[in-house]
Amino acid sequence: MKTLSCRDAGFSCEGEIRAVSEEEILSQAAEHARAEHKVEMTPELAEQLRKLIKDEE
């Protein structure tokens, strides 16, 4: 399982996404960013977020 924390991405948000793959994380992150932060996912943002994805222990 992989995780991405909204706080790690620089937002003041408790959101955390969990998924099996990086692609699924990025898909969910795009939806969350649009709905909660009014931010559209760009290729540059996706690449930055990809570096913040962690493997859950």
Task: List the main descriptive attributes of the protein structure presented here.
57 residues, 3-stranded antiparallel beta sheet, 2 helices, globular
Structure explained in plain terms:
The chain is of the alpha+beta class and 57 residues long. The protein has one domain (2-55). 42% of the residues lie in helices and 18% in strands. The protein contains two helices and three strands. It has helices at residues 22-37, 43-50; strands at 2-5, 16-19, 54-55. A three-stranded antiparallel beta sheet has the order 2-1-3, covered by helices on one side. The protein is globular, with a radius of gyration of 10 Å. The mean pLDDT is 96.
Give the helix/strand layout.
Elements: E1 2-5, E2 16-19, H1 22-37, H2 43-50, E3 54-55
Antiparallel strand pairs: 1-2, 1-3
Short description:
This protein is of the alpha+beta class and 57 residues long. The protein has helices at 22-37, 43-50; strands spanning 2-5, 16-19, 54-55.
Give the helices and strands as they follow along the chain: EEHHE
What's the Cα radius of gyration? Answer: 10 Å
Placed side by side, the strands forming the largest sheet appear as: 2-1-3
The end-to-end span amounts to 8 Å
